[in-house]
Amino acid sequence: MVQAIPLRLLMLGGCAVAVLHNMMTPSLQGYIRSSLDCPTTAVSQTAGLDHASSRVAAPFKPYRSAPMEDYILKHTKQLGYQATSPNSSFCCTIWNDKKASTVYDDLHKYVRELGHYYERVRNFTSPFTDLRKALVSSVADPDGTSVCDSLELHPNGLVGGIFQSQQLSETTRMGFVEPLLPSLRHIGFCSNKAKFFMNLDYLVHDFAAMCRRMSSTSRTVFVDMGASLDFHGDKASPAMTLIKLYAQFGMPFDHIYAYEVTPTEPDKVFRLLPDEMQAAYHWINVPVDPDPDGSRNPLRMLLENYGPEDLIVVKLDIDTPSVEMPMVEQLLNNPRLHVLVDQFYFEHHVHMAEMERSWGKKVNGSVHDSLTLFHALREKGVAAHHWV
């Protein structure tokens, strides 16, 4: 006689599925399957009541880099990107000299498409202040398809409608992103450094694809390592600009963990914050600990408190390679983080001629090393972007 155990019953493909909470032995699993005449894969401890389970269960697909990205990675030596001090790489040559590579025309066509993309971003208004409220399963829209489709910037999608050159890279989980390119920031930086130095209009986000990985119960988290709000004077912090972009597409953050080593009075911090971020903002005025087991390690905090069903965005820019690189290595080498961290933004200080005056001696490695590192993160499942 089988002991009575509390069960939750779900309907999956017309079959009743028993969901037990860490109490189901193999023999009991077999009993339930035979009793309910369900396939083995139907019995799950993590099944949800809306399309939350699709985020975890979706098959892992390999990272597909854009043709330009492939070309650059294969020719870093010829392009001079493997150089380190005192012979730093000149990253703008490929943009300004037609003879420097065979992708000059492709690069400039992509720049024009990027301009069209940002025109649509600036004109976009989400029908949802918080799309999660609309992702509850219904008969009319059981998997939230119409909700996520409403975030598409073009009826034919990013590649079919805007980037017809097919020069976007495709991540394993977060849809399309910008290709990894040697400017390591906005391409306009090569022609007008003052105007484009802190400009974020080179990042490409596939918000519709992100939405399809979320559910009504997903938590949204932004971790900001290097969170000084007054560093940029009267201009908006790039991190604040990014946070507002997510909110523009119906993805406001429930929690914003802001780590900053420079002592700053909380009153000053919260006076600088927009009203809509006050409740979510956690000001953590201590140094980041790069030790994976350290109590002040932000990635450890994420592992202990959040899961793959949540939307996790991480920004790393603390201008200290001895702390930053162990954090990046932790992200690169921990498989649990590969399915936890969705978007990662990192200003990687390497030997790059155009940035020598700005980065000074706080550099480590070559442009080749940076492109290879970000490519490896993307292959692991983390949508990694160069930051400003």
Q: How would you describe what is shown here?
A:
By secondary structure, this protein is of the alpha/beta class. It is built from 16 helices and 10 strands. The strands form 3 sheets. Strands 7-6-5-8-9-10 form a 6-stranded parallel β-sheet. Strands 1-2 form a two-stranded antiparallel ribbon. The protein is globular, with a radius of gyration of 23 Å. The relative contact order is 0.13.
Write a short abstract of this structure.
This protein is α/β, with parallel strands linked by helices. The chain is built from 16 helices and 10 strands.
Q: How many strand segments?
A: 10
Helical element count?
Answer: 16
Using only C-alpha atoms, the radius of gyration works out to 23 Å
Average pLDDT taken over every residue: 86
Please tell me what the overall shape is.
globular
Spatial sequence of strands, sheet with the most strands: 7-6-5-8-9-10
What percent of the residues sit in helical stretches (DSSP H or I)? 25-40%
Count of spatially separate domains: 2
- The parts where pLDDT drops under 50 for at least 5 residues are 1-56
The structure class reads alpha/beta
Q: Distance between termini?
A: 64 Å
H/E series, N to C? EEHHHHHHHEEHHEHEHEHEHHEHHE
Q: What does the main sheet amount to?
A: 6 strands, parallel
Work out the strand percent.
Answer: 5-15%
Strand and helix layout:
Layout: E1 8-12, E2 15-19, H1 26-36, H2 53-57, H3 67-74, H4 93-96, H5 104-123, H6 145-149, H7 157-162, E3 169-170, E4 176-177, H8 193-196, H9 207-212, E5 220-225, H10 238-248, E6 255-259, H11 266-272, E7 281-284, H12 298-305, E8 311-316, H13 321-333, H14 335-338, E9 343-346, H15 356-359, H16 367-380, E10 383-386
